[in-house]
Amino acid sequence: MSAHSATAGAVAEDLGTDPAVGLDDELAAARLAEHGPNRWILPRRVTFRQVLADEITEPMMLLLVAVAVLYGIWGRLEDTVAIVAIIVVVVLVEVFAEFRAKSVIAALGTLTAPTTPVLRGGRTRSVPTEDLVPGDVLPLAAGTRVAADVRLTETWGLRIDESALTGESVAAAKDARRVLDETAALGDRANLAFAGTTVVAGRARGVVVATGTATELGAITGLVVAGRPPRTPLQQAMRDLSKALATLAIAFSVLVPLIGVLSGQPWREMVLTGLTLAFATVPEELPIIISLVLGLGAYRLSRRRGLVRRLRAAESLGAVTVIATDKTGTLTENRMAVDHAEPVRGSADELLAAGAACTEATPEPDGGWAGDPTDVAFLVAARDRGLAPPPEPVHRFAFDPVRESMTVVLPDRRVVTTGAPESVLGRCRDADPAVLARAEQLAARGLRVIAVAGRTAAEIPTRVEDAERDLELIGLVALSDPPRPGAADSVTAAHRAGIRVLMVTGDHPACARAIAGQVGIDGDELLTGPELDLLDDDGLAAAVTRVTLFARVTPAHKLRLVTALQDGGEVVAVTGDGVNDAPALARADVGVAMGSSGTDVARDAADLVLADDDVSTLTRALREGRTLHDNLRKGVKYYLACKAGLVATAAAGVAAGLPIPFAPIQIVVLEMYMDVAGTATFAAERSERDAMDRRPRGRTDRFLDRPLVTDLLAGGASLFAAVGGLYLVSSFTGTDAATAQTLAFVGWMSGYLALAWVMRTERTPLLRAGLLSNRFLPLWTLVTAASLVVVTTVDPLREALRLVPLTGGQWLAAVLVPVVAVSWIEVRKMVRARRPADRAGPPGSQRSGHPRRDR
């Protein structure tokens, strides 16, 4: 049957489900096997074969193949076999690193896969959207993204935005009682809710009639393969940088062999050296380093309940200078309870009964309610007093953040309105100013104050304007919503990190100020939404630099505040959970939504979802963001320093009229070890102890700034001084060429490791950071040491790599000289650690959007 042309009961019976209980788990599992996952987009798969194919067609891989071919033509057979074997290892190492990075990034999509509440076995639970099956019973509420095609069984003022499906910009009103003609057009099917649409008002319950490609949306899209995620700004910047540096590297790889030929070196050897040097010096690993650090950072954050929906958020977290946070559900527990009731006329029971009638909460089988915490608080208070359940309204005008009120019309023509005191009193016939003063007194104690008003209409009003007029105030109800346990610590941590924290709430100013005082937000100066309307753009730009508390704001105000902060150079993180937060979440540099209490619309608009709704998770996310950016800097700095040292060592040997310090096959081996260290070491590095004690970086700060370039050149120079010095000194003191090359090879292997150890941290001495805090580097150090012993003592390997035995003194020099040469970097960190710390200081002591870099 067509769901829209049959009654709701007939549809439920046909699907073998009970709208009051739903399916049991066994039947749901059987139907999932029969109908398949509820999806119309296939997740993008990352396969090892795909990454391997991409890697072996890279220009740098083709250069290595050219080296192998030329070795086969000009060199010895054993050399050709050795270099081919090494090429295979190099390719596999790089493919594994890239596969790991891409797999982690692709997995982020599954970590943030949407869930939906469903009634199964008489209990409402959250299940993955892909697990929905025909016959499931879904509750719908404002802000919900409809997950499948649903035949509505009950509706209360339900309106749905169907523009994604029909193109109609006006929200469609829905009525479960209607039975339509078989030929009714898609946009006229008022008893159905379609997959991919969004509930904008009201609530409902319905039975799933189609999933996946059987839905109206699925029929249009088919199974579309998810597109490749766009590169983040930093990924694109590093790719562009790689191309620019590649030109410079290739120039050196041409210049060095040319000098060698002109100085009498064998031209064939120089051609091979040039090709190999090009492979070793072109920074093709930079994009992999960025992807790996970003991906693993986002994955680590997910293990701490912060789910990254967009990879660019992982970049931006480390640069956040301002947090604009909602109050209810973010800083507070969003667990409302009636503190006390103050009737103006009638009794407290009559006041609470009226408030309980004006709700949108949905009853649950266990006797509780699901819905807005304020609605639930009224219903619980009425039940606890033994009051009769409220009658079902004939009209429900959902809460509107602009009106700041909600209204129901009961069957006996009684109208009940609840909302903000100033808004409700403005619709009453006789508004006593003393009532508003009392509301402000209650709000000053951190209580949320709801005004309840009503009247008996001559006839049932059908428009909200007719319903909400000539009201009589019934009384005030004060509700409490305590701050979350970790909220104050999170605000303190943000302040210590030089991040301003603003509270932006639609709540009463006095209540906002009270909660702000409890969590440590300065509430001395406060602006309300109406006051913001009086400010022009220049006035608002000045206000946001000093005011940290905004109350009675609308979604439009939130959006304007975020824009003003960004125009002032701030990097803004916005937290929120409701439909009204979505515009600001989407506009923010990092939108942070609550995972449990947040609406689907808020989660879709956000970049980061806090799965546990704990604001302290945001503090951990900020630390992870700073760690991620620090690790990117360290990885890029180390990688480019090694490249610079290698080019300088090779060029110095040739310029001195000596054979090139490294044979081509040695360069390939060095590149392999360096790539592994560069891609894995810094992705695994933990945060430094002062990560949350430093000012955030500025929005306009360049990634390759002067300190980074200076440090990488200093690191490269240290490596060159050690390895190049070993080679030149040994060559000019009569050591044969093979021994000098072996010294340079062993020196390089020691030096690249020593440089990785000292560049692990930027400000914290190694001993303080912990020698074993990075689990990869100690292991890789042992692997490198073992490899050196093997290739210098096993004759076939030693001959393949053009190495010769070294004396004890030569081994000591080859290991210690590079270690000593780079140790000055560690000494500098130790000296800096003894100086007074350059802390971020209290927010407001400087413009956080333009901080001085903490070096």
Task: Describe the protein's topology.
Elements: H1 8-14, H2 25-35, E1 41-42, H3 48-56, H4 59-74, H5 77-111, E2 115-120, E3 123-128, E4 137-141, E5 149-161, H6 163-166, E6 172-173, E7 192-193, E8 198-210, H7 216-221, E9 224-225, H8 233-262, H9 267-281, H10 286-302, E10 306-308, H11 311-316, E11 322-325, E12 337-343, H12 348-357, E13 362-363, E14 369-370, H13 373-384, E15 395-400, E16 405-409, E17 414-419, H14 421-425, H15 433-444, E18 447-456, H16 464-467, E19 472-480, H17 487-496, E20 500-504, H18 509-519, E21 526-528, H19 529-533, H20 537-543, E22 549-551, H21 555-567, E23 572-576, H22 582-587, E24 590-594, H23 600-605, E25 608-610, H24 615-655, H25 664-680, H26 706-732, H27 737-759, H28 766-769, H29 776-793, H30 795-800, H31 808-834
Parallel strand pairs: 1-9, 11-20, 11-23, 20-22, 21-22, 23-24, 24-25
Antiparallel strand pairs: 2-3, 4-8, 5-6, 5-7, 5-8, 10-25, 12-19, 13-14, 15-16, 16-17, 17-18, 18-19
Give structural attributes.
disordered C terminus; 49% helix; 25 strands; eight-stranded mixed β-sheet; elongated; alpha/beta; 855 residues
3D architecture notes:
This protein has 855 residues and is of the alpha/beta class. The protein is built from 31 helices and 25 strands. Strands 10-25-24-23-11-20-22-21 form an eight-stranded mixed beta sheet, with helices on both faces. Strand 13 (362-363) and strand 14 form a beta hairpin. The N and C termini lie far apart (71 Å).
